[in-house]
Amino acid sequence: MIAAQELRIDSGVLVTALTTGGTFIRVVVPESNKVLYQNEELHKIFPDALQRPCYHFWGRTSHCEPCLSGEAIKCNTRQSATVHTPKGVTFACFAHPFVQQADGTRAALEIFRDITRERALEHAVEKTKLRLLEAQNMATVGNLAGTFVHAVRNPLAGIVLYVDMLLRKVDSNNFDQKTLKDSLLRIKDSATKCEEVTKNLLKLAKVQKTELKPVNLKEVVDQGLHVVSSKIASKNVDVVTTLPDDLPAVMGDFAQLQVVFINLFSNALDAMPSAGTLTVHGAASDSAVEVKVADTGCGIPRENLSLLFKDFFSTKGDKGTGLGLTQSRRIIQTHNGNLTVDSEVGKGTTVTVKLPYKK
Ligand SMILES: Nc1ncnc2c1ncn2[C@@H]1O[C@H](COP(=O)(O)OP(=O)(O)OP(=O)(O)O)[C@@H](O)[C@H]1O
Ligand SMILES: [Mg+2]
């Protein structure tokens, strides 16, 4: 009997693994790709594993790159990863370095669990959260529009009424100085009311606009990627981020900038239905920080490029509102930056966000 200590496994992990249904356990030798042992649970779904290379279980025809157990042995510590099989199953995996074998080779204990349904649920919850956020934004726009219409409807109707009356009097050549002045004063009064409403609305929009503070875009990107992490995992997409730690801070509203990057990541992931690479690259010049969000997805047809920033333009049917890019560009513009899109059908899309900073 091998002690948990000897396996260098936290005994809590081992007890949980051994007693939880749906947990698969096996012992593999990465050097020879051999499976030495597998538990009953695993045997039920993959009976002839001991006669086959360990990577067959993951639906692969060659050695895994990187090999989780190989890494665990090399680093002599527990490694974990999320693995997606070609059949669309997602596993949470742990590999623990194992005792030396008689022939000098080392084995690893692998413990893994099917988390496909959990991930799908998490994904659905995140999508709903984003939709709710969007709905709230739309509701705010709707409320503002409602307030505006309500406040200007009466004064505008008054203006039209007095102008009509004056026109009739002009037509019939029947107007005196007093009536004319009186009507013009009423028109001026109503127009002033409309002007007031417009000013207040602008004030309100400004209050809701931005709260500028130094923002580290690397943090915005990292947290944004975290929000879409289950969508990333469900698609077998590789994420490469190259943002220097010393990227200068930009003056901005963290939450709004995060909305921008979540929008861009979601679009990139939508464009790569099964696999691909999402690259986020950051660099600073003398006066601006540039972050490029690139995907290796389907790309955007030339004829659609001019429609991207039109409200409600979407090719995603009821899965998209068509507001993501418009909203993102508006936010970047209120930060005195700009957002541009380059795309080639079949190759992918790169969105560049450029934000100024002061030295
Ligand atoms: N990275 C991308 N790759 C391919 N097409 C893209 C990409 N980003 C945007 N698009 C295209 O631009 C359209 C508009 O994008 P936008 O983000 O504004 O709306 P959406 O993604 O359709 O809906 P949502 O409001 O949910 O974001 C998309 O429907 C898609 O056709
Ligand atoms: Mg979008």
General description of the model:
The protein has helices at residues 11-19, 40-45, 68-75, 116-171, 177-209, 217-227, 229-235, 254-270, 302-305, 324-334; strands at residues 23-29, 34-38, 79-84, 90-100, 106-114, 213-215, 237-242, 250-252, 276-284, 288-295, 338-344, 348-356. It has 359 residues and is an alpha+beta fold. The chain folds into three domains: 11-114, Beta-Lactamase; 119-209, Signal transduction histidine kinase, dimerisation/phosphotransfer (DHp) domain (Helix Hairpins); 213-356, 2-Layer Sandwich (Heat Shock Protein 90). It has a five-stranded antiparallel beta sheet with strand order 2-1-5-4-3. The protein has a five-stranded mixed beta sheet with strand order 7-9-10-12-11. A hairpin with a 3-residue loop joins strand 9 and strand 10. The longest helix has 56 residues, at 116-171. It is elongated. The model is unreliable at 1-13 (pLDDT under 50). Bound molecules: adenosine-5'-triphosphate and magnesium ion. Adenosine-5'-triphosphate (ATP) binds at residues 263, 267-268, 271, 295, 297-298, 300, 308, 313-316, 320-326, 349.
CATH topology of the largest domain: Heat Shock Protein 90
Uncertain residue segments? 1-13
Name the hetero compounds present: adenosine-5'-triphosphate, magnesium ion
Gap between N and C termini: 64 Å
What's the gyration radius in Å?
Answer: 31 Å
CATH level 4 superfamily of the largest domain: Histidine kinase-like ATPase, C-terminal domain
Helix content: 40-55%
Total number of beta strands: 12
Shape, principal axes of CA atoms: elongated
Give a quick account of the main beta sheet: strands, pairing sense, barrel closure.
5 strands, antiparallel
CATH architecture of the largest domain: 2-Layer Sandwich
Strand content: 15-25%
Mean pLDDT: 83
CATH class category name of the largest domain? Alpha Beta
Number of folding domains?
3
What structural class should be given to the helix and strand makeup? alpha+beta
